[in-house]
Give the backbone structure.
Amino acid sequence: MEHHPQAWLAEAASAAQQQGPGNLLRVVLIVMVVGCVLVAWFLLRGYKRDD
């Protein structure tokens, strides 16, 4: 059994087309959540008091 990178890449591309936008939406949601956490941390760190 020979290994052909082009065949694997074409197979992966066709599988991605059949799957739909599921992975893209998952990545977008994860990036949004991480971004919200970072923005909240950045904004809230200014309220820390050093007494």
